[in-house]
Amino acid sequence: MSEVFKIAIIGSGPAGMSAAAHAARKGLSHVLLEKTDHLSDTIYRYQKGKHVMATPSVLVLRSDCEFDAGKREKILEQWDADVKAAGVNVRFNADVKAITGDQGDFTIELTKGAPIRAENVILAIGTQGNPNLMRCEGANLPHVQYQLDDPGEYTDEHIFVVGSGDAGIENALGLAADAAQGNTVTILNRSADFARAKKANVDALMATRDAGRMTVMTETTPSLVEPGWITVDTPQGSSRHRCDRIIARMGASPPRKFVESCGIAFASDSPGAFPTLSPTFETTKPGIYVIGALAGYPLIKHCMNQGYDVVEFIMGVTDLEPADEPLLKEKLAGLPGNRKVSEWLAFLRENVEILNGLSPLQMREFLLDSDVRAYKADEAIFIRNAPGSSVFGIASGSVKVEVDPSNPNITVPIGKGSIFGEVGLISGRKRGATIRAAEPTICIEIPRMAALKLMAQVPEARDTVNRITSERQVLQIFKSGLTPADIQEVLAGAEVMEVRPGQAIINEGDVSDDLYIIRSGSMIVEKNLGGKPVFMSYVPAGSYSGEMAMIERSPRVATVKAAIRSTVVKLPAEPFRRLLSRKPELRKRMEEEMHARKEINAFIESQKEEFGGAVDMYSSVANFLIKQGIGEATDVLLIDESLCVGCDNCEKACADSHDGISRLNREAGTTFANIHVPTSCRHCEHPHCMSDCPPNAIRRGPDGEVFISDTCIGCGNCQRACPYGVIQMDKPPPKKPPLWEWMLFGKGPGPGQPSYEWRKKATKAEGAESPKLAIKCDMCSGKPGGPACVRACPTGAAIRVTPDAFLSVARVDRR
Known about the structure:
Blueprint lengths: L3 E7 L3 H12 L4 E4 L7 H4 L6 E2 L17 E2 H15 L3 E2 L4 E7 L2 E6 L5 E8 L20 E2 L12 E5 L3 H11 L7 E6 L9 H12 L4 E4 L2 E6 L2 E6 L2 E6 L2 E4 L7 H6 L26 E3 L9 H15 L10 H8 L8 H11 L8 H9 L2 E5 L4 E3 L8 E6 L2 E4 L8 E4 L4 E2 L1 H6 L6 E4 L3 E6 L1 H10 L1 H20 L9 H5 L2 E5 L4 E3 L8 E6 L1 E8 L2 E9 L3 E2 L1 H6 L6 E4 L3 E6 L1 H10 L1 H27 L1 H16 L8 E5 L8 H9 L7 E8 L2 E5 L18 E3 L5 E3 L8 H5 L6 E3 L8 H7 L9 H12 L6 E3 L12 H4 L6 E4 L5 H4 L5
Helix pairs in contact: 1-3, 1-7, 4-5, 9-10, 12-13, 17-18
């Protein structure tokens, strides 16, 4: 009769090793099963010399094994010694293929050797054995790999790292660490933020990039892999790069098939879902426990604490507090009522929709990064135009949105369970409205990075944010007295789509009839006339396209494609047609807009026959402006060279308005026909410069202007991120002192002295250099009369246009 162990632990990573060491210290009969010939295979497979972090630093470690931040090799050596000292019964090369039986009598089948019997089973197998694979064409070529053992093996290679989590960043840093190796390293991140990575890793990545040892490409995805090359999609379009090797580190998925075969249920059908666990880590199969990364806790310190705790729970301890309990008690101390931490966690998770998909264990980690607060009735949660990129979830009560700045009594309610503040989260814009508690209300405030991490890790949260933002955008665009209940059927079948530059969402002649909302980015409309595409119109974010085929049930009359990387919401035609039949006001409004668009299309088509060259010129100028960033601009400076006399008054006025430093270069930039796009900020809808600003110094003002605040540290990240070269690094001129200080103490610059010129002379005399800071156009925010460049132009050549008005610039004389 084989021995029956009290506990069988499968997997010797930080969680499993810690559980086995504690079981040994407690004198429990146990066995630690490891399928390789060494402990902690995940850490073992880290790249050589990798620095392993011990975060969160505020969390107490209660394991029987030691752990502190340090090199991979030192940590593994320490754990080997700890396991030996504790007397752990470990069996190597024990690969588990099945678990059968019930609590008190489990049988663990191995691929080799006799079965193991145990009363309780702890699964600590992690997720790293199931890496997510690249899905683009060519992803199966031999030079694509999903593991990096030793960065020193590679020299003089062009290497792309795909993945922006800790593993991807650490691999890229290792490959770029030694300049003597001669590697050209590029890391790709599909989003603008590194939401999955630790701050220390992101900081190290940016420092390496700033030192010129690595290229970081954000909002970029691979689209084609060829021998020696990789093609990527960027916000500006596709680009092809030399590539000898690809290291793909895009995370991993739980080994769901094996886990479910043990009788364990998952929290949802999502591929990234985790097993359903009790607060004691017990699964839906009594007697089987899950800890570590498979439980949704990937941080080493968390895993080791779980290993200690789960053994205590199996021994019958019921009053053991989690290690993070004191931290959460302090965070929740100011809330009304007398709830325990576990009760508050359940309350928030159950009542805030975007948190529904989190497990109780994930909820604990998530709350460490967030804040919960109770608000009194009429208390302001945030004020219109205040900076802020966090999102709020309503756990109880409700809030009211003041939609009319001139009349705070006009409000729109948002009820329990929903979110608000998502505009700041998605676009980085200042708060668009004042929001107050309509009654005593409890809200959880989720910082931007925590929210992005939540959306990346929990598909249900991402889907909820997409649904709510889609609902609000539809209501805002179509108005006509619609309510959320009116569009519920339409949104039930809505699909959020990411569209790369140049990709068509509608093709001329197609018989499809869905409607498209442009959430971000912009579209251009083209029609085939005379055998070539002719530019017809431009569709900015916040508008829609496809209504003609939807209303008239006819084939598509034009092609609609993305001017830049865009996000669209596809609304199914049939539910929308039923909505139109119930809402005659909406139908009338849409038909009026449709007829207006058809008249413009018909006019351009008629002009093509009579004035073909002029129409072609109009189309060419419009396409030129799109390529110059108009598609993502909110305000751009253009110069009509048929009117410009080269006086440079625009540059001089800009310098006079900004202490002697001009924020535009009239001669620089590109020209087509008579339209010149000088080097000046476009104030993009989703600013590239804002995506990586460590002190969050780049903000958006109340009129849409993107400006740089006094908190700039001169890192230069924004200058490198801007694709249009409109940001300069320069030493800021001093502010003019009061007249009496200049007269009595000689402080300058004085009357008539340009600040910029004075600073250069003073710097030369003193022999000291002040640090350079980022400088760019701020649309003369706060200055009367608007942008000085436009006001100073004597001929009217300089104009500033918004996307919805730029087509007027592209019109040419067709007579």
